Amino acid sequence: MRESRREVQRHYRYRAQIMLEVTDVHTYYGNIHALKGVSLLVGQGEIVTLIGSNGAGKTTTLRTIQGLLRPRQGTILYEGKPVDSLSTEAIVRLGISQSPEGRLIFPRMTVRENLEMGAFSRRDSLGIKSDTERVLNLFPRLRERINQKGGTLSGGEQQMLAIGRAMMARPRLLLLDEPSMGLAPMLVTQIFSIIRDINTQGTTILLVEQNARMALTVAHRGYVLQTGQIVLAGTATALQSNEMVRKAYLGEI
Amino acid sequence: MKRWQKIFLFLALAYSVLLLGPIAGLDIPRITRDVVSHPETLVQQLLIGLINGAIIAIIALGYTLVYGIIELINFAHGDLYMLGAFTSLTALGAFGVDGSATFQASILPIFLTLILATTICAGLNVLTERFAYRPLRNAPRLAPLISAIGVSFIFQNIGLFWGGLRAFLPVMGNNAAAPKDFPDLLPHINILKSLGIQSNINFTTKELIVLVAALALMVGLQLFVQYTRPGKAMRAVAQNRDAARIMGINVDQIIALTFLIGGGLAGTAGLLIGLYNNTIVFTMGFTAGLRAFTAAVLGGIGNIIGAMLGGVLIGLISALSDQYLSSRWTNAWIFAVLVVILVFRPGGLLGENVQEKV
Questions:
Q1: Do A108 and B235 lie within an 8 Å CB cutoff?
Q2: For B167-190, how does the pLDDT look when each residue is reduced to its tens digit (9 = 90+)?
Q3: Of the candidates A98, A100, A117, which has its C-beta nearest B236's C-beta?
Q4: What is the pTM of this model?
Q5: How far is A140 from chain B (nearest CA, A)?
Q6: How confident is the model at residue A42 (pLDDT cuts 50, 70, 90)?
Q7: B139 HSE (CA, 13 A, CB side)
Q8: Does B357 score more than 60 pLDDT?
Q9: How many whole angstroms from its chain centre is CA B5?
Q10: Predicted confidence band at B94 (pLDDT cuts at 50, 70, 90)?
Q11: What are the structural domains of chain B?
């Protein structure tokens, strides 16, 4: 199910600029057809969530946008420019960064070094310094652990570090892959409220989640991905009341 | 490993050392007598072991850097070091330096040779990575390994061919496969004597220069990897290649840089061993490579400080074994120590085992 560009713009007339436009993207793992024509839009300043069950292709979508996988067909426009043939480095420099699935912290680097690596694409040491402060204010736990090795952190702390590290690239579009995975419920709430803070401070977010309930409470809009295809799209409130979503992803009825 | 398994293995090892001991020269009363009657020999051997070990450590760094970053055992690395020594000998010959030259006259040629050997080996290593390993990066692990063994043979045969070029390079002697004389250029001023210490220990400026050069390389590498931007990127790629890409690191470039550094170190080590041992041969890369690889595993492969430690340890073991046990059994002793250490610390002496949380 596709929605037209105009529909999204009608929803978001007050910030009508489209930041990311993924059109009919097909991605393969060898012979496995993982994404079968995914199309989605992310508007400037939005939190858009991509929900779906295991193996639906959520992570694949993020990895394709980031340039870690090449789409075999389809286009990805970021701020109006095609990015689907750019290298990951170039895409990071353009302002897309992500907190990947499984966090992928550098285990033998300290928290500070992990954050430094997040800013690898940048050269402005003053800006990096102030962004480090910003991240540490957002995640006070990381300040306490600043000289500890990444591999010794708890799961929740690693998740904070992964998000903070992605923010160090000063992205305009932040991709978050399952930030709630494996976290205690209290931490999940905390992480999601931080995600909302990051968004209010001006970063657009594309959020991939299995925890559809939480994702739909923070997101403005959402897409439902099933076996490599978008099957539903709409505002978060619309999705929350959609029968199919309630049945399959919110565990109701 | 369970406790009883460890005890069993330890007993088995102790038993085989007891059996192997008498054959391989482990005659404790004789060794004790030797050490007590000539303590200076022990110090002298430790010194030789330290210097040889430092050179092994520099080669071991090449193994450990590459393994750390792409989990490939670069079998060609030892032979690259041999080519470094051959390049050095040829370059010195081309600069008109031979055994009769004074140190003052040969400082500049040695310096130029150092640059040449380092650059050539670094470039060769980068090319090898580009054409022999990179195309196999996503192939099964065994494919690049076999490729590396192939490159090792190619390098050895280049060395053999090179040794046969006597018509163009008079320094090469009469026989392609024979050891070549490397000019003894470093000054032999006995440091202990000039400090006024009476001793039979031969510690000259030559030993000092080689030792200082090797240590400087190790310290320099460690600082580079810890504190510079490309050094940090190298560590990031080694720890998690995917995450490194997401950070905006050009992974291919960093892997090439790793090969560049490893190759440069091998080239420098080739020059140092030539200046220190004054003889080179086309098979030297195989033996040295084996020891250096063992050193890297001993210290914990992928760990830079570990490779240095392992190198020095192996240098010391082989010097002591040459002197007190039996030089024919030196390799057996080295590997016996390796086995014992790996039984108790499977990751090597400094092998880190940080659990990654899921």
A1: yes
A2: 666 667 778 888 998 999 999 998
A3: A117
A4: 0.90
A5: 21
A6: very high
A7: 13
A8: no
A9: 33
A10: confident
A11: 53-344 (1.10.3470)
Q: Tell me what pLDDT residue A8 has.
A: 60
CB contact under 8 A, A120 and B247: yes
Q: Would an 8 Å CB–CB cutoff place B243 in contact with chain A?
A: yes
Q: What are phi and psi of A47, to 5 degrees?
A: -110, 115
Q: Which of A8-17, B69-78, B202-211 has the weakest average pLDDT?
A: A8-17
The pLDDT of B308-336, averaged and rounded, is 90
| Paired tokens of B149 | 């063994």
ipTM rounded to 2 decimals: 0.90
Phi, psi of B309 (to 5 degrees): -60, -45
Interchain proximity B355–A165, CB inside 8 Å:
no
According to DSSP, residue B178 is labeled S
